[in-house]
Amino acid sequence: MRSRIIAVLTTLVTAATMTVATAPGASAASTDDNRLTAVVTTFQDHHHGKAVTYDARLVPVGALAGVAVRRSKSDTVTELEVYGLSPHRAYGAHAHVKPCGPTGAAAGSHYQHVQDPKQPSTDPAYANAENEIWLDFRTDSYGAGSAKSEVSWTFDERRPASVVIHERTTSTSEGEAGTAGNRLACINVPF
User: Fold this and answer.
1) Nearest to residue 144, comparing CAs of 96, 89, 101, 99?
2) Which residues have C-beta within 8 Å of that of residue 158, sequence separation ≥ 6?
3) pLDDT-derived band of residue 5, with 50, 70 and 90 as boundaries?
4) Three-state DSSP class for 106?
5) What mean pLDDT is predicted for residues 85-90?
6) Which of 20-29, 30-39, 154-163 has the least mean pLDDT?
7) What is the pLDDT of residues 101-129, one digit of tens each?
8) Cα dihedral sign for 17, 90, 103, 116?
9) What is the pLDDT of residue 32?
10) How many CB atoms lie within 10 A of CB 160?
11) What is the pTM (predicted TM-score) of this model?
12) What is the distance between the alpha carbons of residues 133 and 163, in angstroms, rounded to a whole number?
């Protein structure tokens, strides 16, 4: 599956435009049986595009991001690829419930399969990589990085709307679970 998602991202990067694609035989009205959606875009300094940076020092304007999501009846695989971010640095990233906006806060909280009744959620019983989509990564000397999340559930009528990149990797500690510091950038994703 990874090679299929990477192939879609590579094709989209070559096209150098923001693109949404679905797997062969899928349509917008199809069920979630093996549906593949991919987005490739560049970060802008305004929220009217598909991706916005809130900290151009760590996520520069013009840096590239690609997100691919494969959904089946029973699981969801999400991959994030970035290029041109600050090199040799660890970042956190998660799926969020709302689209990107003028500030990082506009994306709302993390998408949780089973919602914590107390928000913002820092309880490790809810804020964990099995109940949320976590995509933490480390960049190389080119500012390139990648991450993959595999969860054994899929979406119902609730769906995330974006992926937010944070300033540090995600905490798993009691009372801090799910936190990853400031919101540096956001990518709108049609999950």
Assistant:
1) 89
2) 97, 111
3) very low
4) helix
5) 98
6) 20-29
7) 999 999 999 999 999 999 999 999 999 99
8) positive
9) 44
10) 26
11) 0.85
12) 9
Q: In what order do the strands lie in the sheet with 51-53?
A: 51-53, 183-188, 162-166, 90-96, 137-138
CA distance 131 to 104: 22
Q: How confident is the model at residue 47 (pLDDT cuts 50, 70, 90)?
A: confident
Tokens of 47: 């929220």
- CA-CA distance, 53 to 183, in Å (whole number)? 9
Sign of CA dihedral 84, 86, 89, 92: negative
166, 184 Cβ separation under 8 angstroms: yes
**CA distances in angstroms from 78 to 42, 120, 165, 173, listed in the order given:** 19, 23, 14, 24
Q: Are 150 and 77 in contact (CB under 8 A)?
A: yes
Closest among 125, 55, 121, 123 to 91, alpha carbons compared: 55
DSSP state of 10: H
Residue 120 tokens, joined: 């913002």
Residues pairing with 44 in the sheet: 52
Is residue 68 predicted with pLDDT exceeding 80? Answer: yes
Number of neighbours of residue 159 by Cβ within 10 angstroms: 15
The alpha carbon of 127 is separated from its chain's Cα centroid by a whole number of angstroms, namely: 16
The amino acid that residue 47 corresponds to is H
